[in-house]
Amino acid sequence: MSASTGAPLLRVSQVGVRYGRGRGVGRAAGFVALHDISFDVEAGDSIGIVGESGSGKSTLLRALLGLMPIADGSIAWHGRDLASFDAASWLALRRQVQPVFQDPLASLDPRMRVRALLAEPLQVHRPELARAAVDEAIAKMLDLVGMPAGVLASYPHELSGGQCQRICIARAMMLGPAMLACDEPVSALDVSIQAQIMQLLQSLHRDSNLTLVFVSHNLALVRRLCRRIIVLRQGRIVEAGDAVQVIDRPQHAYTQALVAAVPVVARRRLG
Amino acid sequence: MSSIPAPALELRDLAVRFAARGGPLVAVAGVSLRIAPGECVGIIGESGAGKSQALLAPFRLTASDAQVGGMARLAGEDLLAKSEAELDRVRGARAGFVFQDPMSSLTPHRTVGEQIIEVLECHGRAHGAAARTRTLELLEQVRIDDAARRLSRYPHELSGGQRQRVAIAIAIACDPPLLIADEPTTALDVTVQAGILELLAALKRERHMAMALVSHDFGVIARLADRILVMYAGRVVEEGTAAALVAAPRHPYTAALLECLPRLDDPPGAPWQAIPGQPPDPRALPAGCAFHPRCPRAAERCRVRQPQLDGGVACHLPVSA
C-alpha cells in the first residue's frame, strides 16, 4: 500500500452506521448506532474511545477494522478510502491493523496450541517463511510480551486470563502492525493482571511507535495511556480532545457525569 | 449475659474445601469475621481468592460438593447445622442476596411483579393484594421510576441498572437483617454503578441493615464499607477500617493492589506498577505465605512459615505505618 503524503494514518469522516435494513421509516429505518463521526488518527498516536454501554464504542472500532459496513461517510487509511479497497488491499490492511478484544479466551481457537496460534498470522500473510524463521519470530514475540517459551505447547484453556491476553497481543503483533485496535482489552482481567497488560500495551506503543486505538469504559486507564480521547454518547461524539484536558476539565455535561461517577478511591488525590 | 446483640453474621475459622483431581482444593482457609447490625464489611480480593465462597458457602449457595468447616452463625444461630429445609427459610428471609448479573439472577419468563410477590408469599410475609401493594412499595424503595408500570414488565424489558434494582427489591423484600452483595455493580456502567451504590448505602442507613459487600474493586468497596477484609489465596491477609486500610495499607499485597488501581490523577504516561506473576493455583499453594512468590519484601521466613493474622495483618514483614 503506497502512502499518500500528508494524509493521516486513519481519517474518519462523517461516518454513520445503522443496524437493521436501513430502509423505510421508524423501526424499519434501522437503529442508528453511529452518527456523523469524524476524527483523524496520526501514526504513533494513542486515542481512547469512552462512553457507556450502547454508546457505539465497539461499533466504531469494528467499523475502523472494516468488520462493520458503514452507511454514511468514509474511512480512509493513508488517504485511501476503504470503500475502494480490493481483496489485495484488504489483505494488506489486515497486516497493518490488528484487533485485541475483551475476552481473550474467546478470541483464541480452543483447539490450537499457542505455537500454532502465533504461527498462523505468518502462515497466512508470509507463507514463504521457513519453519526456522517462524520459530525465531515466535520466540522473539513471546519474549516481547513477557511469556516463557514453555507455553508454546499449551492450549488456551490451560492459561490464565492475563496469559491469554498476552497471547492475543502477541498474535496481533506477529505481523508488525502499524496500529492495534483494542476493545476493552483489560476489562475481563483482575486489577493486578490489568496493570501487567497496560504496561505491555504502553511499552509497545512507546518502543515500537505503535498507534493505539483503545476502547474502554475506564476513564482512569484512558487518561494515563492515551494522548487523545473521544467521548461517545448514543452514537455521537459529545466531546473530543487532549485526554488529560477533557477528563480534568470536561465541558459537556455527559463527560462531567462520567467523570463524577468514577469511585472515590480512584480519584482520591484529586482537588 | 451480655447486652451486646449477637453479630448479624459471624464466621470463625471458616474453611471451604472441594474434592478435586490432584488433591483437595482449599478455597477458604480459616476466615473469621463479624458483621454488626448496621455495619458494612467489604471483602476485596482477586478472582479465586475465596471471597464469594467465604460468604456464600455457609448458606450452601455454592457448589453442592463444598465441604464447609469451622463456625458460621447468623444472628447467633449455627448455619452449618441447619438442614436444607431450614436454610430455605433463612435464605431470602433472614439474609438477602444480590449477585453480579441481574439478567441471570432473575427469571426471564416471569414479570418483575411476579418475582417479588413470589418471595413474599414463599416466606409467608404477604399474600394477594397485600403482596401486590408491598411489591409496589419495594419498587419505590429501590427508586424505580414508574413502579406501577414496571410490575408487569419482564427482566429483558428493563435496563441493567433497573434489573439490579429489582434484584435488590427481591433481596430486601422480607426485611432481612443481613444483605450479602456479591459484585453487585461489576456488570454495570460507572454512572449506573454510582446509582446502585448510593441505593445500597441508603438502604443500609435507613434499615440499619448489616451488609457484606464482595468486590474486586477498591473504589466500590471504599464507597460503602466501614471495614475491609483483604483476601488472598483463601485467607484474610489484612483487615481494618476502610479509611485506615486505604490510606495506610500494611500488607504488601494490599499496598500493591492499591498501587495497581488506575486513578484519575495518575501522571499521564506513568509506568504501571503491576504485581508480577499471578495468584496461585488453590490446589498447589506455595509453602509459607501464599503471596511470597509475588512479594517484593519476601524473606526466608516468608517462604517457610505461614503468617497468622495479628493486629489486622498476616505478614512477617508488614509495611510500616
What would the keywords be for this entry?
heterodimer; A: 271 residues; alpha/beta; 6-stranded mixed sheet; 4-stranded antiparallel sheet; 10 helices; 37% helix; B: 321 residues; 12 helices; 10 strands; 20% strand
Q: For the largest sheet of chain B, list the strands in their spatial order.
A: 6-7-8-3-9-10
* Large-scale geometry of chain A: globular
Task: State the shape of chain B.
Answer: globular
Mean pLDDT across residues of chain B: 93
How many strand segments of chain A? 10
Order of helices and strands of chain A: EEEHEEHEHHHHEHEHEEHH
Distance between the termini of chain B: 38 Å
How many separate helices of chain A? 10
Helices and strands in order:
The complex is a heterodimer of chains A (about 270) and B (about 325).
Chain A: E1 10-19, E2 31-41, E3 46-50, H1 57-64, E4 72-77, E5 80-81, H2 87-96, E6 97-100, H3 104-107, H4 114-125, H5 131-144, H6 161-173, E7 179-183, H7 191-207, E8 211-215, H8 219-225, E9 228-233, E10 236-242, H9 243-248, H10 253-260
Chain B: E1 9-18, E2 25-35, E3 40-44, H1 51-56, E4 67-74, E5 77-78, H2 84-90, E6 95-98, H3 102-105, H4 112-122, H5 128-141, H6 147-150, H7 160-172, E7 178-182, H8 190-207, E8 210-215, H9 218-224, E9 227-232, E10 235-241, H10 242-247, H11 252-260, H12 300-304
Parallel strand pairs in B: 3-8, 3-9, 6-7, 7-8
Antiparallel strand pairs in B: 1-2, 1-4, 4-5, 9-10
Task: Report what the structure shows.
- The complex is a heterodimer of chains A (271) and B (321).
- Helices cover 37% and strands 23% of the residues of chain A.
- With 271 residues, chain A is an alpha/beta fold.
- In chain A, helix 4 (114-125) packs parallel to helix 6 and helix 6 (161-173) packs parallel to helix 7 (191-207).
- With 321 residues, chain B is of the alpha/beta class.
- Chain B has a domain at 98-175.
- In chain B, the strands form 2 sheets. In chain B, strands 6-7-8-3-9-10 form a 6-stranded mixed beta sheet.
- In chain B, strand 7, helix 8 and strand 8 (210-215) form a beta-alpha-beta unit.
- In chain B, helix 4 crosses helix 5 (128-141), helix 5 packs across helix 7 and helix 7 packs parallel to helix 8 (190-207).
- The model of chain B has no long low-confidence stretch (mean pLDDT 93).
- The chains are: A alpha/beta (271), B alpha/beta (321).
- At the A-B interface, helix 6, helix 7, helix 8, helix 9 and helix 10 of A face helix 8, helix 9 and helix 11 of B.
